[in-house]
Design a protein that fits this description.
Blueprint: H1 3-18, H2 24-31, H3 34-42, H4 48-79, H5 81-94, H6 96-107, H7 114-132, H8 147-165, H9 171-178, H10 181-196, H11 200-234, H12 236-256, H13 265-286
Helix pairs in contact: 1-2, 1-4, 3-11, 4-5, 4-10, 5-12, 5-13, 6-12, 7-12, 8-9, 8-11, 10-11
């Protein structure tokens, strides 16, 4: 896989990381490089130069997409919620055939067992918890420049990193339920706007929040990757069953967050088109 291709895949992971309901790990699964990515992160210190050079283009693409597309994606979700959600739902549903293929390849002639169905169902219900507890994360947490906020941001970064690594688990969904999605989106938007406006003092003030968050993300990604790598070695078929359950529940969570007023005939027709576009693009990218 070329450097440019990995940069482009990193862009997609970055988009998935800031789009509500999506998972960067899900995109990596669909594109066929998830296990390679996990192994490179988990074994980073063991073969540092080799794994760092492999991960570098993904990092460049991911950071570039978060910086450049966060404002645009936020605008689309605010003004065109239903068509935008169904576009990403198309991406999500389109990954299920790839997960099924992975599950079959690990099971071979043994076929599915009841434990696989139970695992998928358990993780399906886990993702639906924010829907049942809707309103718990409707408020926004406050952040200051004090030591307590810095510690909280490290912890939030670790949580966000877990959702980056675990396919089907949406970081934005978790952050919303905790009340930190809107504050962090505001910080990112302010930083990007200030940087592009060459207002470096304003951009620097946001680094007080961004740096501890980044530290938490790095720690969380490394620790979670180690754990996921272990699971893939020991129980790969059950891991893919869990991923299938997580992915299958995500569209329900996304649609539950759309206001009823958005379900007009025009929006529903447009949403059907964007759903098909998402399915088509996922299939082509997976190929």
């Amino acid at each position: 896989m070329s450097f440019i291709t990995r940069v482009l895949y990193g862009v997609l992971i970055g988009v998935a990381s800031i789009a509500p309901g999506l998972s960067g790990g899900t995109i990596a699964i669909a594109l066929g490089f998830y296990e390679h990515l996990i192994n490179a992160i988990a074994d980073l210190l063991k073969h540092f130069r080799k794994n760092f050079l492999y991960l570098l283009p993904y990092g460049i693409g991911g950071l570039a997409s978060v910086a450049c597309l966060s404002v645009a994606i936020n605008y689309l979700f605010i003004h065109y919620p239903l068509p935008t959600n169904t576009l990403f739902i198309g991406f999500i549903i389109g990954t299920l055939p790839f997960i099924w293929a992975k599950l079959k390849s690990h099971q071979g002639e043994k076929g599915l067992r009841f434990s696989h169905v139970l695992t998928a169902g358990f993780f399906f219900l886990i993702v639906l918890i924010p829907v049942f507890a809707k309103g718990a994360g409707s408020g926004s947490a406050s952040l200051s420049a004090g030591p307590l906020s810095m510690m909280i941001l490290v912890g939030i970064g670790m949580i966000a990193a877990t959702t980056l690594v675990v396919p089907g688990l949406s970081g934005t969904m978790i952050l919303t339920s905790l009340g930190y999605y809107k504050p962090l989106l505001s910080i990112a938007s302010t930083f990007v706007t200030a940087a592009f406006s060459l207002d470096f003092p304003a951009a620097a003030r946001q680094l007080i929040f961004i740096v501890p968050l980044g530290v938490g993300v790095v720690i969380g990604v490394f620790l979670t990757a180690k754990f996921v790598q272990f699971l893939f070695k020991k129980i790969p078929s059950h891991v893919y069953s869990a991923i299938a359950g997580l992915i299958a529940a995500t569209p329900v969570v996304m649609l539950a967050d759309v206001e009823r007023s958005a379900f007009s005939p025009l929006n529903i027709g447009l949403s059907a088109v964007t759903l098909l576009v998402g399915l088509f693009l996922t299939r082509k990218l997976g190929e």
